[in-house]
Design goal:
0% strand, 460 residues, mainly alpha, Growth Hormone, Chain: A, globular
């Protein structure tokens, strides 16, 4: 950590003298005293936070997963091999995972509104640059930078959601927010599928989504709110955190992270399980159009619609298991995560063995796979947020992201190399094994019940 950063963390009065001060949390507003005004403001602000974090995070996918649709066309028009295309995915994913972790540490102490909007705007600019490029080196460098700024999307969402919603409702609200993944991917897949089919030009896949993301970044600045205190409202679960109202020094903050995050075995288990969740997820999201066209002989438009079905099922899976986690499991997300990974393995095996020409059966299995993959993808954040409490939620989800996006070594470059050299059969063998390993790790995390102080508040 640089001296400048330490000065910003430890001496708020010097924030105005540093460049990083633009991300400093806003000061607490004058507290509202009228009960009716407090209630109405709380309702409006909570709604805006949930809607705009969801829309904002979906927009990050506009300028990330457009690459998946462009890949087959880039391979054909530019002569780039699957291994090279996969390598770009891997480099992007690794940088993205590191960025989410490091920005998670930062995200616990910055203004989530400005931080998220800045990251999205930067990604929009980099997509324009990527669309104007023509060499592998420029593709790699631009997509590496895009991966870094993509990492500024998730951490502020974790900060905002855990500050605006209590533990009793967090699994349901985070599942609603997690629909951003599927909504973003569905939108960009269908949009870019039609754009490529009409124009037969991969570059338009980057220009149009970039304009959409830039518009959303403006909306984030206008509609998001950092914390309840920043608009004069009382803190959610205030009595739990009454003892940490004083601004922490840098030493106290990192000591807290060590206690709440890095020494917690269940956060590590959930993070490792997230590796296998993301192997499965990105095998379909990144390579789905290519796989369906080559292995199942589906058209370009048909393949993007089928992968969209996978994402649509993810919406249903996240909402269903989020509700069940709050309603029947008292916030404990590991049991359903384990079950879904096992069922995903069964679905993967059937999809692999099903005859290619059976389109409706393949689509149904893709729907089932999306339901079972996206459920634990959403619930991993619930597990670690409960374990770390809202004081370190962004750091905890950032740690899971390192493992999640390290998976692109396998789902990106690794998968491209395997397909190019051995075909698709070995890929399905690996994906089935990944589902089983993920289920085992979630099983080891079954005792996770959340931070003890959170339990006390949830029971009150």
């Amino acid at each position: 950590m640089t001296d400048e950063t330490a000065a910003w963390i430890e001496r708020p009065e010097k924030q105005k003298k540093t460049l990083i001060s633009i991300f400093a949390p806003p000061p607490a507003a004058e507290p509202l005293t009228d009960p009716a005004q407090i209630e109405s403001t709380l309702i409006v602000c909570r709604r805006q936070v949930l809607i705009w974090t969801t829309v904002g995070y979906a927009a990050f996918y506009f300028v990330r997963k457009n690459y998946s649709v462009a890949m087959p066309v880039m391979e054909h028009q530019l002569g780039i091999s699957k291994t090279t295309l996969g390598l770009i995915l891997t480099l992007h994913g690794v940088v993205y995972g590191i960025s989410k972790f490091l920005n998670g540490i930062v995200g616990d102490r910055v203004d989530g509104r400005i931080f998220m909007a800045t990251g999205l705007a930067a990604c929009a600019i980099l997509n324009v640059v990527f669309g104007m490029s023509s060499t592998v080196l420029l593709f790699e460098l631009t997509w590496l930078l895009n991966g870094w700024f993509q990492g500024m999307g998730y951490p502020p969402c974790a900060r905002l959601l855990t500050h605006w919603f209590s533990r009793k409702e967090l699994a349901t609200k985070m599942s609603l927010w997690n629909t951003a993944h599927s909504m973003g991917i569905i939108t960009v897949l269908v949009l870019c599928g039609y754009l490529v089919s009409h124009w037969n030009n991969w570059r338009i896949c980057f220009f149009v989504p970039a304009g959409m993301a830039a518009a959303v970044s403006i909306g984030l600045l206008a509609r998001l709110h950092d914390t309840p205190e920043s608009v004069g409202l009382p803190e959610v679960d205030a009595k739990l955190f009454a003892h940490v109202k004083r601004r922490q020094t840098a030493g106290e903050f990192f000591s807290m992270l060590g206690e709440l995050v890095f020494s917690n075995p269940y956060i590590w288990l959930a993070s490792m399980a997230n590796f296998f969740v993301y192997v499965l997820r990105y095998a379909f999201v990144d390579w789905g159009p290519t796989m369906l066209q080559e292995y199942k002989h589906i058209s370009v438009v048909g393949s993007t619609w089928m992968v969209s079905t996978f994402e649509l099922a993810g919406l249903a899976g996240m909402l269903t298991t989020g509700y069940l986690t709050d309603r029947w499991f008292r916030g404990r997300a590991a049991p359903l995560s384990m079950l879904c990974m096992l069922l995903c393995g069964v679905t993967m095996l059937i999809f692999w063995k099903l005859p290619s020409q059976n389109v409706w059966a393949n689509t149904t299995l893709l729907f089932a796979a999306g339901f079972f993959i996206y459920s634990p993808q959403a619930l991993v954040a619930v597990i670690v947020a409960h374990e770390a409490s809202k004081r370190a939620a962004a750091t905890a989800v950032g740690l899971t992201s390192i493992f999640g996006y390290a998976s692109t070594i396998l789902s990106g470059w690794g998968l491209g190399w395997l397909v190019q050299n051995y075909g698709w059969t070995i890929v399905f063998e690996c994906l089935t094994g990944a589902a089983v390993l993920g289920a085992i790790l979630f099983a080891l995390a079954l005792p996770a019940r959340g931070h003890p102080q959170d339990d006390a508040v949830a029971a009150s």
